[in-house]
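Input.
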Amino acid sequence: MDLLPVEIKVDIEGDATGAMSALGASQRPLTTRRIWFAEDRDGVARGAVPLLDSGVIVRFRTGGGPDELVVKLRPCTRDQLVGRFSAAFDAEPLTYKIEGDWTRNGRVLAASLAHRHPPTWRSTWRPGRSPACASWRRRCA
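Output.
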């Protein structure tokens, strides 16, 4: 049997404190994170998410520790994971993992490559702007 790590993520809208208490986690401090997903602007303008529909997730997350950029392939098959990418590895500052993800359609295999770095990006970003504006020092409206 191929056992993979298990991670449970829950999106809570509304009373986060009450939800944490109901989950028995009220003694832990809450972490606030900001998360952005990369997607094709023209597709989104048409109501489509072509990267996500193709099984590619590009996510930037900040808050609660180091900033993190993740590229994830979900769903994928073992046959798609070749060479170095056929097994999990750490090569600071990169972490590659293969895991089972539960989605609304059931359990699928996922592979992700994460790059973590100090949270210096937050000091250059202003609310209402794209993270790309801060990280690449571009002029953005």
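The two ends are 52 Å apart (CA to CA).
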